[in-house]
Write a structure and sequence with these properties.
The complex is a heterodimer of chains A (264) and B (296). By secondary structure, chain A is α/β, with parallel strands linked by helices. Chain A has 2 domains: 164 residues, P-loop containing nucleotide triphosphate hydrolases (Rossmann fold); 79 residues, no CATH class. In chain A, the strands form 2 sheets. Chain A has a 6-stranded mixed sheet, sandwiched between helices. In chain A, strands 2-1-4-5 form a 4-stranded antiparallel sheet, with helices on one face. In chain A, α3 runs parallel beside α6 and α5 packs across α6. Chain B is an all-alpha fold and 296 residues long. Chain B has 13 helices and 2 strands; from the N terminus they run αααααβααααβαααα. The C terminus of chain B is likely disordered. The chains are: A alpha/beta (264), B mainly alpha (296). The interface between A and B is large, with 41 and 30 residues.
Chain lengths: 264, 296
């Protein structure tokens, strides 16, 4: 039994508390609080430079916040190195796709299994039965992920040679290979055509059905509003609104942030 | 057959081939560091010299079996690899390159000034223990080892670090630890290679392992194709044998050697076998057959 909240509410899978990130004199994120419930698709939106990607980098351990705490599944993970955070069950994709471009599609996803497998130097030199079985299991799992995103027939191609939309899906397959509880998607629909966006929506829904919580940053409002359970809006590093897509869309502060304040 | 027999009965050819094998072991180690993990090292010869002096001094002063001395030399080189790795592998690219360059010079200067290594006069009288067959066996063992390392979960992680360090971290790879391990493994090969060299030439001088030697080994790896094991073999073979084959042009030898390198970089900028993945070719060739088998 997992401990539940005081009022019998579902516990938060991810909890950001008063997170502040400063780069020199610039405050990129200012005292941000954010929670994501298990099983949700949550979105983080806001104009360019609002601090969305910075938040992702804090959660995934690339940046260390100047102040504030990140709690994941009830444990504090603030300041842990990125590799330890992945091992705890947070996987991510990158805004400006970071694939291992010279490697094959399959090898990219096999690398996603890294934190769930063990063979080391000695194991690879001796190649015992256990190591060979593990390698086969890595391949099987990676191919399942590739099938899920529809790239299994391209597994022997070089990752850098895939189309833009395919590369985005490959990043998702690679992230999913680490069996995350929380998947962070940084602008997954960027550069996709309308059909690819529809496919992506189905894919993200499918990932949620697997029991994975999704937090995404996205500029495409149609995409965000039709897929998310909750939306948080950021502007200049502060959260200006949060709630269901409908609530957020009617919030005057959000409209002002996006369209500018109406003159009177 | 007659040609083969003649070849192996000519001590000059055997010596050239043995030296090539010794440098190949060192180059395979550097390929692990620079080719696969993508970490520049301009001080590989320094690690060779650590293995060489360490094993030679053991041979001269203690009645231990040669193979043990050789391994101890390799471990000593790896130890210094780790010692250098801890502070410097947080650096990347050019910065790491310059650090290793500096380390290489420090090692050379230390060996020139130590009494126990014979200083600038060098260390003479090392017993001749390195036999061509032993080098052949160790070359084959090294090839098997680096091949298995590269095509494994471990080697994949090293390649990931070369390709994109931030993404590698996001895969759960502890990049600092893996880089240090790669340095330890690569410098171990260098140490073994140095020990073999010492017990073949029977004389060591710090100037044998300077900056020029480090670059020579780096050339083998780069011209063969960074990250490619067959490329390292080919690069070492071509570049270590070319100066010998070019002896007939006498004074123009190094000129042609240099021209050869320039031409190779122009026509094959990724090295002779750079970007050629034999395993992948093999799988592609096999795949259609597997598929037709599965359809039945």
């Amino acid at each position: 039994m997992r401990a539940t909240g005081a009022e019998g509410k579902q516990p938060h899978l991810l909890e950001l508390n008063e997170i502040t990130v400063q780069f020199g004199g610039l405050t990129a994120v200012d005292g941000l609080a954010l929670t994501v419930q298990e099983g949700q698709i949550a979105a983080l939106i806001g104009p360019n430079g609002a601090g969305k990607s910075t938040i992702f980098n804090v959660i995934s351990g690339i940046y260390r916040p100047n102040r504030g705490k990140v709690r994941f599944a009830g444990e504090e993970i603030t300041g842990l190195p990125a590799n330890a955070i992945t091992a705890r069950g947070i996987a991510r994709t990158f805004q400006n796709i970071r694939l291992f471009r010279a490697l094959t599609v399959l090898d990219n996803v096999k690398l996603g299994r890294h934190c769930r497998t063990r063979a080391g130097i000695l194991g690879s030199l001796l190649r015992g039965a256990r190591v060979r079985a593990e390698e086969q299991a890595i391949i099987d799992y990676a191919r399942r992920m590739l099938t899920m995103v529809g790239l299994d027939d391209k597994r022997e191609e070089i990752a850098g040679s895939l189309s833009y939309g395919e590369q985005r899906r490959l990043e998702i397959a690679r992230a999913m290979a680490s069996e995350p509880r929380l998947l962070l998607l940084d602008e997954p629909a960027a550069g996709m055509n309308p059909q690819e966006k529809v496919d992506l929506m189905c894919l993200v829904e499918g990932i949620r059905r697997l029991g994975v919580t999704v937090l995404l940053v996205e500029h495409d409002m149609k995409f965000v509003m039709s897929i998310s359970d909750t939306v948080a809006v950021l502007d200049y590093g502060r959260k200006i609104a949060a709630g269901s897509p409908v609530e957020v869309q009617q919030n005057p502060e959000v409209i002002a942030a996006y369209l500018g304040k109406g003159g009177d | 057959m007659e040609i083969v027999r003649e070849f192996f009965s000519n001590p000059y050819y055997v010596q050239v081939m043995t030296l090539m094998g010794i440098f190949l072991i060192s180059a395979l180690g550097l390929n692990l560091i620079t080719g696969i993990t993508g970490q520049f090292s301009f001080g590989h010869a320094a690690f060779m010299s650590i293995g060489a002096y360490c094993s030679a001094l053991l041979s001269l002063h203690l009645p231990l079996p040669f193979l043990l001395n050789l391994v101890v030399g390799g471990i000593a080189a790896a130890l210094f690899g780790v010692l250098l790795g801890f502070p410097s592998l947080r650096l990347t690219g050019d910065y790491l390159g310059i650090t290793t360059l500096g380390f290489g010079e420090i090692v050379r200067v230390v060996f020139i000034n130590l009494k126990v290594t014979g200083g600038a006069r060098g260390l003479a009288g090392i017993p001749k223990e390195t036999a061509p067959w032993l080098v052949l066996i160790l070359v084959l063992a090294s090839l098997a080892a680096v091949y298995r390392l590269q095509y494994s979960r471990y080697g994949r992680a090293l390649t990931a670090i070369r390709e994109d360090e931030i993404a590698a971290e996001a895969m759960g790879i502890n990049t600092v630890r893996y880089k240090i391990q790669a340095f330890a493994l690569g410098t171990f090969f260098a140490g073994i290679s140095g020990g073999l060299f010492a017990h073949l030439i029977q004389y060591l001088n710090p100037s044998d392992f300077g900056f020029a030697r480090s670059f020579e080994i780096l050339n083998y790896v780069v011209l063969g194709g960074l990250g490619s094991i067959p490329g390292t073999v080919l690069g070492t073979a071509v570049l270590s044998l070319a100066p010998e084959f070019l002896r007939f042009v006498k004074d123009y030898r190094m000129l042609i050697y240099g021209g050869l390198m320039v031409a190779m970089m122009i026509f094959r900028p990724h090295g002779l076998l750079g970007g050629v993945d034999l395993q992948r070719w093999w799988r592609r060739w096999r795949q259609p057959r597997e598929m037709s088998g599965g359809a039945v």
